[in-house]
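Input/output pair, single chain:
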Amino acid sequence: MPQTTDRMQKLEAMLAKDAGDPFLLFAMGMEHKKLKQTAEAVDWFKRTLAKDPGYCVAYHQAALAYEDAGNIDLAKQTYREGIAVARQKGDYHAAEEMEAALSMIE
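Output:
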């Protein structure tokens, strides 16, 4: 069973009341990412994107988690998906950040 934090327990309690809140889903992903629990982090980021496909930072953080785990191909794919979504919704700052991150691993 993965390690948990006090913050994770608080987030779980909030998610019990609102399981579809993208911010809470994303926050759980970040907590797992901090603990180097890549698979769990990515799962939470995917849940975030299932609820809100335009949550661009979830693409960025998922790609970073893949990078941390050494899965560069999935990181590249995730950055590209995030860049496309960010451009489509007009979030050029997010697109530029992911483009810069992608350029560092290509």
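The longest helix spans residues 72-89. The chain is about 80% helix and 0% strand.
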